[in-house]
Design a protein that fits this description.
This protein is mainly α. It folds into 2 domains: about 60 residues, no CATH class; about 210 residues, MetI-like (MetI-like fold, Orthogonal Bundle), CATH 1.10.3720.10. About 80% of the residues lie in helices and about 0% in strands. The protein is globular, with a radius of gyration of 25 Å. It starts with a helix and ends with a helix.
């Protein structure tokens, strides 16, 4: 009797979901995807449009905007600067995140762990403008006149992106059960250095790779901090992109599509890395 009642309730729930809830969820999903992709599609259309003035869609078809973007020296330099900043950010995030995440994971005191989490999550909670103003105050002094240097730009991106990588690594350490594996290795006579090299680093390589691709995607598109602390010689791509919108619309759309393509490539790489790591 109870089994029949359970089957009846389950069938009623599935029918109710198919009749009422599924169409509502489908409509909400369609509405969200429309809201998300229409601006992107308009950007792509605008990058190939010959003219676009006070109309919903551009008129004409041309590849000239991409050719003009390729021949523009300021955008080529900005692209190279962005690649330098992304590379430096990933390197320094790797060097800092792995030992910090391991220390947080192995911390015996819950108070220490909570305090450390609050500290490394502050860059997420605080607006990038706050960090940028702090950088301006500190690094325009005579003691540290480094405002506008590429290294300061890398340092700012590290501060903004490091919390995301730390969170990824700490969560992965918990799922992998590193403590049990290290205890077994220690019982066999392995020291800390050997355990860290032969157990911790190999197990974290996939999560580190996917986390770094997320770091790269965030660094490529970062604008607020970069716009305030970047010098004239080291302006990254998003900063130079803003100036394009004061000129031809098609040129600005083409430059934005390139930035979007870079971010999508980084996101797709991170998804593939995460999928490979889960196997």
């Amino acid at each position: 009797m109870e089994k029949n009642q359970y089957l009846c309730n389950s069938a009623c729930y599935k029918l109710n979901w198919l009749v009422y809830e599924a169409p509502i969820m489908g409509f909400a999903t369609l509405l969200y995807l429309t809201y998300l992709f229409i601006p992107i599609l308009l950007l792509i259309l605008g990058s190939f449009g010959q003219t676009w003035t006070n109309t919903l869609f551009p008129s004409g078809v041309t590849l000239g905007w991409y050719h003009e973007l390729w021949t523009d020296g300021s955008f080529r330099r900005a692209f190279l600067v962005s690649m330098e900043v992304v590379t430096g950010t990933c390197v320094f995030c790797s060097l800092l995140a792995v030992p910090l995440a391991y220390s947080l994971y192995r911390s015996a005191s819950k108070r220490v762990m909570v305090a450390a989490r609050i500290v490394f999550l502050l860059p997420i909670a605080a607006p990038p403008l706050v960090l940028a103003f702090g950088f301006i105050l500190v690094f325009t002094s005579d003691a540290a006149p480094w405002l506008g240097s590429v290294w300061l730009l890398v340092a700012g991106h590290v501060v903004l992106t490091l919390p995301y990588l730390l969170q990824t690594l700490v969560s992965d350490m918990r799922h992998l059960g590193l403590e049990e594996l290290e205890a077994a290795a220690e019982s066999l006579g392995a020291g800390f250095g050997r355990r860290f090299r032969d157990i911790v680093l190999p197990l974290l390589r996939h999560s580190l790779g996917s986390g770094l691709i997320m770091v790269a995607a965030l660094s490529i598109g970062e604008f607020q901090l970069s716009n305030l602390i970047a010098g004239f010689l080291y302006r990254p791509y998003p900063v130079v992109l803003l100036q394009a919108f004061y000129g031809a619309t098609g040129f600005a759309c083409a430059a934005t599509v390139i930035l979007l393509a870079l971010a999508l490539l980084a996101s797709a790489g991170g998804a593939l890395m995460a999928r490979f790591a889960s196997r």
